[in-house]
Design brief:
CATH topology of the largest domain: Rossmann fold
Distance between the termini: 69 Å
Oligomer: single chain
CATH class of the largest domain: Alpha Beta
Bound molecules: S-adenosyl-L-homocysteine, iron/sulfur cluster, FE3-S4 cluster
Strand order of the largest sheet: 2-1-3-4-5-6
Length: 493
């Protein structure tokens, strides 16, 4: 068969594909599977893949779906990109250094790609939603095979089919500006069998002035309670004991639903606390976490639901970003320092044993020494168990990119100051459980300490204690003997 015939044949196959989802993707998974079987006969080995995730929980969750699709097609997963025939980078672009990291990786792959004709490289995720980045990759790294975005990652099998059967060497690129359709029920391969993330919504409507997420993930869309509860039930039946409900701002769940929903028809006011209490009713599910909570939308109802449900983790990730009301206003966060501190008081009054964690940014345009002092005040007041600190990174297209930027020496100095405070406060705060007995979900055998396992308390803090492999995926009561800053050493009781 010559190349022209193959091309015609492919057109026939593509034309015979179902037009509805997920049937269309099922079809392309089967077609790719046939191609992979042929490849195995030819080469004598199963082709391997590795998905490298650069981003947040959402990205990690998308990667689980990509992995599920590739396993279904017949690829074998390997732990590092060095051993992989097919490498996918699922990118993040929330800060500029993520872009540089990706280009570094791509540069180092050129030689390998030249010497292995079967090797494939795919790039997807948030960074691909930016036209300039896609153009740069096409011109500087023409050897990349597949480029796709956040709205169509579920189409991996279809795009791979185009690539495997194409007759020229061009990069297959498909990036959508807005979501086209939402596809439920695709295969996924979870990293852990006993815990899983579940997306409850996509996108973000908040447009914090520094942030690129609304531009690369689109407007907020909530999944229906039916779809979410069905997924959680399935996961629990498959052995999951912990679920993390995911969204950029879970507290605004329900503003705009993806599909028709009987529940919403009957209860138009259905909100995140309602969802949380419905999820908590699922038998067999032992622990529920959620993130992220935007401080402006955290309701009393949510705190009441948490207080009434022992299954819901006593942990709220409540990104403050900055302490100064002036900077918060410029960031469009829609709360002041006073609002935030009052919220901390309210949370601690309703949930006395709660762990608060946060994200803090240093170096937003116009930030002064005085503003930094406000951030330090908040850190001291909120007594965070953990705080993720970031240096503000300019993202083109965002309103803050047009503001006058601070010199990096000033930012670096302020960052150190904030970091020092965070270290002091979180070491002190997270050690307050010393001597107590807490329920720990065991995650893995400890790589560094022989005979130890590692797990997490409901506030996400790590605990290492003597144990064995059989305990993985189970809850063990552990006496916390010694606080070590970001983790505990303990023993099972
Ligand atoms: N939706 C979440 C945050 C998602 S992004 C929320 O609103 O809290 C995760 C964190 O990255 C943010 O909390 C913020 O601290 C940080 N971040 C976002 N944009 C950034 C930027 N341009 N520069 C530096 N850090 C940024
Ligand atoms: Fe970004 Fe703000 Fe949305 Fe969080 S809430 S994703 S920081 S725009
Ligand atoms: Fe990054 Fe996209 Fe998440 S930009 S933080 S991976 S939503």
């Amino acid at each position: 068969m010559d190349i022209k015939d193959t091309h015609i044949l492919n057109q026939d196959i593509i034309q015979s594909a179902p037009t509805t989802e997920p049937a269309r993707q099922e079809f392309f998974m089967d077609r790719c599977h046939e191609l992979i079987e042929e490849m195995i006969i030819e080469s004598g080995h199963k082709p391997t893949f590795h998905v490298e995730t650069f981003g947040c929980q959402m990205n990690a969750h998308d990667s689980e779906k990509l992995i599920g699709i590739l396993l279904r097609i017949g690829y074998e997963e390997v732990a590092t990109e060095k051993e992989a025939d097919f490498i996918i980078y699922n990118t993040c672009t929330v800060r500029e250094n993520a872009n540089q990291k990706l280009y570094g990786h791509l540069g180092s792959l050129k030689k390998r790609k030249e010497s292995n004709k079967n090797m494939l490289i795919g790039i997807c995720g948030c960074m691909m939603q930016q036209t300039a980045v896609v153009e740069y990759i096409k011109s500087s790294f023409g050897f990349v095979d597949l480029i796709f975005g956040t709205y169509n990652f579920y189409k991996l099998a279809e795009l791979l089919f185009y690539k495997l059967t194409e007759t020229d060497k061009k990069t297959v690129v498909e990036v959508l500006d807005v979501p086209e359709t939402h596809v439920e029920n695709l295969p996924e391969k979870r990293k852990y069998s006993f815990k899983s993330g579940v997306n409850i919504m996509y996108g973000c409507n908040n447009f914090c002035t520094y942030c690129i997420v609304p531009y690369v993930r689109g407007r907020e869309r909530s999944r229906t309670p039916e779809d979410i509860l069905c997924e959680v039930n399935r996961l629990v039946n498959e052995g999951c004991v912990e679920i993390m409900l995911l969204g950029q701002n879970v507290n605004s769940y329900g503003i705009n639903f993806l599909d028709e929903s009987e529940t919403i028809k009957a209860h138009p006011d259905y909100d995140f606390p309602d969802l949380l209490s419905d999820v908590a009713k699922i038998e067999g599910l032992k622990r529920i976490r959620f993130m992220t909570s935007h401080p402006k939308d955290l309701s009393d109802k949510l705190l009441d639901v948490i207080a009434a449900n022992p299954k819901i983790a006593r942990h709220i990730h409540l990104p403050v970003q900055a302490g100064s009301s002036r900077i918060l206003k410029a960031m469009n966060r829609r709360y002041s320092k006073e609002d935030y501190l009052a919220l901390v008081d309210k949370i601690r009054a309703k949930l006395p044993d709660v762990s608060l964690t946060t994200d803090i940014m240093v170096g937003f345009p116009g930030e002064t020494e005085e503003d930094i002092q406000d951030t330090i005040d908040v850190i001291r007041y909120a007594k965070y168990d953990q705080a993720f600190t970031f240096i503000y990174s300019i993202r083109s297209g965002t309103p803050a990119a047009k503001m006058e930027q601070l010199p990096s020496e000033v930012v670096d100095k302020n960052f150190e100051k904030v970091l020092e405070e965070v270290r002091k406060v979180s070491a002190q705060s997270s050690s307050r459980f010393e001597g107590q007995t807490k329920s720990v979900l065991v995650e893995s055998v400890n790589d560094h300490m022989n005979g130890y396992v590692t797990g997490r308390m409901d506030n996400n803090i790590l605990v290492h204690f003597p144990g064995n492999e059989e305990q993985i995926g189970t809850f063990v009561d552990v006496k916390l003997d010694e606080a070590k800053g970001f983790y505990y050493l303990g023993h099972a009781v």
